[in-house]
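Standup notes
- DV: blocked on the single-chain target, sequence here:
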Amino acid sequence: MPSRIVEAEYLYYSNPARNSDKVFNIFLVEEDDGSYSCISEYGRRGSSLVRVVICSNKSRPAAERAFRKKLYAKRNHRETPYWDSYDGSGQSPYAQELCVRSVPASTISTPAFADLTKPQKQAVDKTVRTSGILNQGQIDSLEI
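- DV (later): unblocked, structure below
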């Protein structure tokens, strides 16, 4: 049985006055050997997130205590309280990594509406052709 996420929380903190836009994700993970780990990742939204192992090879109650303690600390921080994120799972590299690893390739199929026997439309040629006019079809700063 591969590692799987048992519980996950996706949080964010945003303060435009401080130019702060952070994410914090925390996972309770059941390992292959039956033990549990608590893993977090954090960083600025859109950047590569730092991954930290909070605890590993623990019993489920011990890992859950570490999970809840860290989650409580982030949500109730005096200066930077984090809130629930509605799109956190899509921005978490760790969650995507475990999801892809846990789905066998044989279960992934093409959509029913995709007919691969017929030739597909060719992509529109979007190469830039020069006609002697700079930035044709685009607004130039001198035109404004």
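- Follow-up: The helical segments are 60-75, 93-102.
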